[in-house]
Write a structure and sequence with these properties.
By secondary structure, this protein is mainly alpha-helical. The chain contains 4 helices and no strands.
């Protein structure tokens, strides 16, 4: 877990506390700020996880993808098919 992930976790917890305080006091602005902090914290946690995943280079991710494809070939085929259809629809829309 890197600094960005930790910062995101702290924002998430702080946002939960703000939202709870807003609920107790009936302060809708504080509730909204809490929700925004939770969303921001979640984004930062995801960015931190991506940074951690990319820190080791692409080799571990490629190995994980190969292992998944070997263990779940039907799920892999469905995923590739879905991505292919999404790509086709995206390219068709840009004509």
């Amino acid at each position: 877990m890197n600094e960005t992930s930790l910062k995101g976790e702290a924002q998430n917890i702080g946002g939960s506390l703000k939202e709870a305080a807003g609920n107790v006091t009936g302060n809708s602005r504080l509730q909204g700020e809490g929700v925004i902090d939770q969303v921001t914290g979640g984004v930062n946690k995801a960015i931190g996880a991506a940074q951690d995943a990319l820190a080791g280079g692409p080799a571990p991710m490629i190995d994980q993808a190969r292992d998944f494809a070997r263990r779940r070939p039907w799920a892999t085929a469905a995923l590739v098919g879905t991505l292919g259809l999404a790509l086709i629809n995206t390219l068709r829309g840009k004509q």
